[in-house]
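Researcher: Go.
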Amino acid sequence: MSRPFPPMQTVSTGLVVAVVGFFSSFPIVLQGLDAMGASGPQAASGLMMAALAMGLAAIVLSLWYRQPISVAWSTPGAALLAVSAAPAAGFSGAIGAFLFAGALTVLAGMWRPLGRLAAAIPTTLAQAMLGGVLLPLCIVPFQATVEIPWQALPVILTWFIAGRVHRLLAVPAAVLAAALVVVLFSDGPSVRPDHLLAAPVWTTPTFSVASMIGIGVPLFVVTMATQNIPGIAVMRSFGYAPVPGRLFSAVGGASILSAPFGAPATCLAAITAAMCSNEDSHPDRDQRYWSAVMAGVFYCLFGVFAVAITGFAAHADPMLMGTLTGVALIGVMANATFAALEVPAEREAAILTFAITASGITVFGLGAAVWGLLAGGIAYGVTTRLRG
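Model: Structure:
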């Protein structure tokens, strides 16, 4: 029997989930928005709306289905943006690509052939593309140790030591270390009381074939392959029966609604889904959906103060923010690389995808992720046909 109010254990679980989900990846979202040409107010709006979109989606979906449906922003998608060239139309062009990716996600949920096509992309190639996207970001911390050693090393060491205590503590601890470094090296930056709350900033989208294919399609593919589909699998592993099509359309709809305000992509979560779905969330599996609901509430609260977070981050050396982003993604890259190379017969196609994506090339207005996936797909198809 469901309670009208959440059990306290699920409130504390929801807080932990929100802290891990938000503070482990908000620097990546900011990096991605900055690479797309967002101004300071647009980046603050994007961070706020991304947090509100995933928070409200988690609340509504979890209450509606009485299942722990954990929702997130697309961290791999934000990482993709961080290494992509900004569209010719600037941030408005990126907004058009965000909307296109959201529309594809809605369509994947409603039209089974597209959903099956997204699911049919070989896992090795999708993970290789993700690994190639992450490589340039993951080497920044070590470049920073040469350029700004007294700022980068405390963050790296904190991340490493905290990770030995508990893996989920590593990045939040690194965020705290980076905040202290910013205070020490920036003469104590502060955020004025009248700049604590974020305000949404509307950006009218601009649509172009180049940005929709070069940014929108890879954003859709990487989000589906590394977030939405694994998120469904995690829930099923704990005995829940989510309806994939409806959930894909729901998070795609949230992406469409929040995109004009700067949010890149809303998706189902995988890691935090496990946190909400296991027995540590609550002994009674029928009460665990409250953990996802409360995580959504805390995401919304963090989102309201996004302008203070972005204002504080603006005082940081860009290499310091790059260090924070890099350490936050090292574990993701390790998992992606392992998954990409796991099948011996597919390694050549996977490493081709990885290398081309990591190269950062742009040809005919299309970024490296598109060419990497295309080349890897051709190699995969030829190899599979010859093997058959």
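Model: The longest strand covers residues 71-73.
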